Amino acid sequence: MPIVGVDRKAPQALHQQIYDAYRVAILNRSLRAGQRIPSTRTLASDLGISRIPVLNAYAQLLAEGYFESRVGAGTCVSSSLPDQIARADSSLRKPAKARSGPRPISRRSTLLPPMGTAPWMRGWGAFGVSQVAYEHFPFKIWSSLINRHARSMGPKSLDYGDPMGSKELRETIATYLRTARGVRCNAQQIMIVSGSQQALEVTARVLFDPGSHVWVEDPGYRFARDVFLMNGCKLVPVPVDYEGLNVAWGIKRYRKARAAFVSPSHQYPLGATMSASRRLQLLDWAQNSGAWIIEDDYDSEYRYESMPIPSLQGLDSNARVIYIGTFSKVLFPSLRLGYIVIPSDLVDRFMSVRIPMDIGPPDFHQRILTDFIKEGHFSRHIRRMRLLYNERRTTLIECLREELGFAMDIVGGQAGMHVSVTVSKTANDRKIAAQAAEQGLWLLPLSTSYLGDVSRQGFILGFGSTSVKEMPQKVRKFRDLLNST
Ligand SMILES: Cc1ncc(COP(=O)(O)O)c(C=O)c1O
């Protein structure tokens, strides 16, 4: 029986069919090493097709080492194919299954729990923490900028860009940060990255060795903790109160930490603004013990009861703060653009560490974002969104008070796009959140933000993507769920 047959009606090209048939025959050992293969002329004539597809298939099989050709002996199945070659069957094009043998993976990759066990992470809808008011995004302006830049693309746009990010965007961000966030910086210190998440990864790789101790806020931002853990750090959970990170507690517990990770403008998730005295205490500690401070300034543009709080970095006179910002909250998370403000003497280190990760950020959206900021759309959008989120926030708080009374502690609503609520200590917030997810409510359990003892059970409720009109009904659903558990 011929090994190779072709079907002219099949969607695959003839050369592909011939290639596949020989490959399968070799892999499942219907053809043996060293066995002779018909000449291209013979096979083409046997199959009643032109010689070109046969030549193409043979060339591919020769290039991949399935065939070899010897002068005077024609074409044969390669004699150097290993004996234990994978047994092939009709499942060759399906993903391979693990059959036997050790499958070693890194220990650090097993440090984090599987993501599949957190149903509240998957949602799109009411109370989702990382969600913004998507429907209010200025789509028309954004797409006209996309069109503009698509039309002006040329050969140069296809080249690798600056590993620090586009110079024009960095200059634009530096101007914005100096005026709006009180950050002391110039464009040379700014590195454009894929959201704060990559900022944390680059920073951790530059600053930490396996075993480095890092203070983290407790409760705090889990995705930051995960980055530090994956880089071999030892986490030191430091409690937060209404003044932010308890610096004295950290000093007492582990003074020699390499760094502290903080969100001073709007502590995540409890919402405190770090007081001036704590800021100075933290900077003093960093200065005296040679430590770094990583400042996560993720949503402070949205402040409702006062002016935005200037950054901690702006108070630092000793270049000890690595400042991280993101466009995920002020614009939208799928943009995946954020930035690091790096102390000048570390810029070169950051660049060396970043290049092996991804060489540099993609260029296209950086150009769009630059124009979006420069032409005033960015500040207009922030102004509009601040009003909108303020309405959503006050409605959420009013509805919670109305439906759940004053027994429920509501914290952290002065800024950003989430509030945290606490429930009875005997409740199981993860179990409730899993049930809520089945009903389309995305409650992030507060307990997941704790590293040390879980001192509160509750939920982090995003209000960014829930309209004022929908809010009462969603809160009633939340109340019913709480009452039924
Ligand atoms: C505390 C905190 N920092 C940063 C971010 C933003 O992360 P990214 O810029 O990687 O989207 C979030 C998003 O929800 C956050 O909650």
Task: Describe it.
The chain has an 8-stranded mixed β-sheet, with helices on both faces. Strands 11-12-14-13 form a 4-stranded antiparallel β-sheet, with helices on one face. Helix 2 (40-47) packs across helix 3. It folds into 3 domains: 14-88, Winged helix-like DNA-binding domain superfamily/Winged helix DNA-binding domain (Arc Repressor Mutant, subunit A); 118-127 and 380-484, Aspartate Aminotransferase, domain 1 (Alpha-Beta Complex), CATH 3.90.1150; 137-376, Type I PLP-dependent aspartate aminotransferase-like (Major domain) (Aspartate Aminotransferase, domain 2, 3-Layer(aba) Sandwich). 37% of the residues lie in helices and 13% in strands. It has 485 residues and is an alpha/beta fold. Strand 5 and strand 6 (244-245) form a beta hairpin. The chain is built from 14 helices and 14 strands. The chain starts with 13 loop residues before the first helix and ends with a helix. The mean pLDDT is 92.
Return the average pLDDT rounded to an integer: 92
SS-based class: alpha/beta
Q: Give the CA-based shape.
A: elongated
Quote the CATH topology of the largest domain. Answer: Aspartate Aminotransferase, domain 2
| Percentage of residues in helical conformation | 25-40%
Associated small molecules: pyridoxal-5'-phosphate
Q: What is the tally of helical segments?
A: 14
Give unreliable regions as ranges: none
Query: In CATH, what is the homologous superfamily of the largest domain?
Result: Type I PLP-dependent aspartate aminotransferase-like (Major domain)
**How large is the radius of gyration?**
29 Å
Q: What is the number of independent domains?
A: 3
Question: How does CATH name the architecture of the largest domain?
Answer: 3-Layer(aba) Sandwich
Please report which band the strand proportion falls in: under 5%, 5-15%, 15-25%, 25-35%, 35-45% or over 45%: 5-15%
Physical arrangement of strands within the biggest beta sheet: 3-10-9-8-7-4-5-6
Q: Biggest sheet: strands, sense, closure?
A: 8 strands, mixed
CATH class bucket of the largest domain: Alpha Beta
For the secondary structure, the number of strands is: 14
Q: Report, as a whole number of angstroms, the end-to-end distance.
A: 68 Å
Q: How do the SSEs run, as a string of H and E?
A: HHHEEHHEHEHEEHEHEEEHHHEEHEEH
